[in-house]
Target: Beta-phosphoglucomutase
Amino acid sequence: TYKACLFDLDGVLVDTAIYHFQAWKNLGTKFGYALTEEQNELLKGVSRVESLNRILTWANYSATEDQKSTWLIEKNENYLDLISNMNPSEILPGVLDFLNQIKQAGYKIALGSASKNAEIILSKTGLIEWFDLIIDGNKVTKSKPDPEVFLKGASGLGILPTECIVFEDAQAGVEAAKAGNMRAIGIGDVEMLRQADKVIPNFVGIQASELLQF
Ligand code: BG6
Ligand code: MG
Model:
């Protein structure tokens, strides 16, 4: 039986995916590169450094380490600016109701996010109070699709990976969950998230007891 739900943050609980996309697009203009939505899909769930590396590869641009560090700081400053006014109204529809249902059912709730800004976002939106454990980009060394972030979630909660259900909007995140031996529920488009055990478009009207079979 399942004992915990591990949630990705960006694009699952809050719609910060649009802010990351905006900030990367803005950065791309510095080296004349126009990032597309299809490419952005491949950046979801991927760490900041790894994202920049991918973009530079697509742009066929070889940057020095100094240039890269500067751009990483600039991207994040821009992103922090974009999220500066976030508030509870930006929690995605249905999320609070779903969290309430699983909490009532006795599930542990943990975060498994690649973002180093996760705590700021959880605080600004008030989501932080729901979490028993937060594993974010400051606590891992390997980017999704490596399962590290979710495995640390399971061990931090003192349960087995097979007792965890992961909620993910990113291909890399679904892969990470499966690599970690967990059940993966995709949030979004079934075409994009083929490896997930099940895909739902969002949390609106979702009955936890049906989805998680308790
Ligand atoms: C993931 C996002 O959750 O966090 C990625 O899907 C993002 O788009 C990554 O690059 C790292 O986030 P941050 O906030 O540390 O730059
Ligand atoms: Mg995500």
Summary: The first strand starts at residue 4 and ends at 7. Residues 65-82 form the longest helix (18 residues).
